[in-house]
């Protein structure tokens, strides 16, 4: 079926819009009685607009988007996983080590030779760390490299 | 005359050594951001916001820095257009048409020099236009009530897709998603918790800066991974400038026409810098007619679009500064900076924060001079930086984005959120859901709700107040046109832009 992605997106947005609108109706009436506009008025309008928009997407979708199946999908997933692990390890390992690993891996996956990639990672990590911690006195986590 | 006084005060702000230093740094960074493909101006300015924030810069300095980056990006876009036939940013697309053929004929240095002069002329004309028009528009905007503002916000969203936009329904969806995200957090007027699900980090709402950086920077990284463009390896020989004074003088009318047209396109909602450079180029082609050699390296074909897009860049600041309603992605990001500095954008800014507004305008004038000085002798530096492969550059840019967001709150929670926004941004760009309306929704959502509330309280809950005044009604009508016109005119304009590009014998 053509335009399947748009239809799926439309369905997802429809669920979101209904849930968003429904939650808005559950809030207790604010103290002092309701005036013209309560906390739920604006969200209700938004939910109606999004319902209309999502229905339109499902009825009249654009031509199918080009999805990168195969190897590129894995590359993209790897990149996202690297970013999440980078975030996870930043505080325990410290900025310099985690950045060297993250920038190195990303730039290697983007086609740089591995040795050059990790050297770039290390250099950029050290430069930014020194610049921030000593130049701008904003502390980035030192982690394992902390000297007590 | 009053304006002149304010402008002098503005110069007093912008010419302090501290601010001048940041203007210079911004101009340099901006040119760099503009010339590197894959690092657009909106993206570049967004990454710098958290840094400007954590550096603790005073508001006027922060704004001067970012405006210089913005102006610089418009200069930088031309460099890769001319040398590599790859536009550094979208408005520089038209510069490829005659810039690249000129470079192939061995006149790369001339093309770069004349386009720097044209950028300067365009920027200067645009800034003069801004100085003349902005105070008038700001005074007019003071008569706006809450209902008019509400209609104006609708207008901003409706025209954001631009006249060349593809599917207006997707613009509407994007804007709605953005506004929805902005409703998360504690409601300002009643104190009700909305969509927080008891998560402490959500009480204050979702910080739009991390949303912007995530949507732009992270999704850009993923897009690059997908396309695997390995540009930038080519070593380009620039050569010496052989431009004669006579040639330079002969392009003056082109510069003036391009700058003025660009400025008008920039001010109008829904047009923007890309259309500005397109209109200037096509008009120039018509005016010169058969006497020119457009598409084969005509010098005026480089001058017109460059004057056009720089004029438009200054023009786009008019609605952003006077109404608080930006018309492009980059001006939306500049608005984000203003809001996070706790400055309410809009007409009152001209009276309450006159030093900032006029400081920024003066900085724009100074910035253009700095950029001209920077871009002619130092062009070699930028050309050399252009040959850094994106495989090294983009991971580093991503890392800087992480550092910026981390340094705001020192919490990794925000970083996870940013990555999530990046992944969402990737999918939306794939499905052609525009990102700029989402950002504008995030920024304007709270203001929209506030104005809706005020309008309804003033009218005792009568909804017809929203279109009761002629002005509000007019705004609604233009907003309606903004959604309908692209469906009718869009395909024609898009076809013309495409055929204009294909006509030129640019292929190797």
UniProtKB/TrEMBL annotation, chain A:
Q: Give the domain of life.
A: Bacteria
Q: Where are the transmembrane segments?
A: 42-59, 71-89, 118-136
UniProt keywords (A-Z) are: Membrane, Transmembrane, Transmembrane helix
Q: Name one matching Pfam family.
A: TctB
What InterPro entries does this protein map onto?
A: DUF1468
Domain named DUF1468: which ranges? Answer: 8-141
* Record's keyword annotation contains ATP-binding: no
For this entry, the protein name equals: Tripartite tricarboxylate transporter TctB family protein
Species, as recorded? Marinobacter salexigens
TrEMBL record, chain B:
> One matching Pfam family, short form?
TctA
Has keyword DNA repair? no
Keyword Transmembrane helix among record annotations: yes
- Which keywords has UniProt assigned to this entry? Membrane, Transmembrane, Transmembrane helix
Which residues are listed as membrane-spanning?
20-39, 45-71, 111-137, 149-165, 172-188, 208-225, 260-283, 323-344, 356-379, 391-408, 415-445, 465-489
- Every copy of the DUF112 domain together lies at 20-440
Report the coiled-coil segments.
none
Q: Could you tell me what this protein is called?
A: Tripartite tricarboxylate transporter permease
According to the entry, what is the taxonomic lineage of the organism?
A: Bacteria, Pseudomonadati, Pseudomonadota, Gammaproteobacteria, Pseudomonadales
